[in-house]
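Lab channel / #folding
Pinned by the channel admin:
"Please post every new chain as: sequence first, then the structure tokens as a reply. Keep commentary short and put observations after the output so the thread stays searchable."

First post following the new format, from NK:
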Amino acid sequence: MHTIARPVEKTPPTQSAAMTGDRSMACAPAQDHAASSRQISDTLSLLGAQLQPMRRVVHGGDVIYRAGEVFGNLYILNSGLCKIVNLAADGREQLVSLSFRGDWLGFDGLADGHYNSDAIAMDTGEIWVVSYPSLMDASKACPAVLHALHAAMSQAIARDRNALMSVCTLPAIARVADFLLNWADALAERGMRSDEITLRMTRAEIGNHLGMTLESVSRALSRLARDHVIGFASQGRRDVQIPDVGALSAFVQRHLAPAPAVLH
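Reply from TO:
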């Protein structure tokens, strides 16, 4: 997973490590997470002052925009959690990504003037609504706003690329571990506790997102629990405990597929 503008643009450490196999960066130091949290807060303060967005409170299940709607706004998530969902030609929903505090929504509407996915709130939060024309005007007047926009676009591209790499290179159990690891890292980068995650998704939704069946997700979570990589804090098994993020990261690293041999 995923943030907005920072003074120095970079790929989130957890994702970079999982995709490149760099064990030294597998778990970002606490000071890096603290710096990321400050940068996200500072960027939101900048955008709030420069854009003066319309603030909208949303609750779980609320639709922020639908695929096919005319593009006119970009959205910034100030608090809460959202999911981006695509609709396949046969009517099946595909959960594309999760969005956390500081993430921008709606970039898929820029190309052809219509949103190509649904954005749906997963819990109570606040969305900032920014009209695209006013964003362009603010970007001309304030280069920092333009930088925030470009950085958010770059990070969205990197997040999508890394998600695809995870699906293509990791076995099922490591995909689930990587999913939890990215979620924990996203929380830590926002100054929130990362040793326990409340999964606001069903096993079927997680499987849909990771290209797995519900049964495969359940087996993977049970295996991770048996190996003491994660635990469950409630009977319903929605609250996932991560006692050691480094151990979870190491589990993913052990399952990285080796690079294919180059034929000469």
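NK: The longest strand covers residues 73-79.
TO: also worth noting, The longest helix spans residues 143-169.
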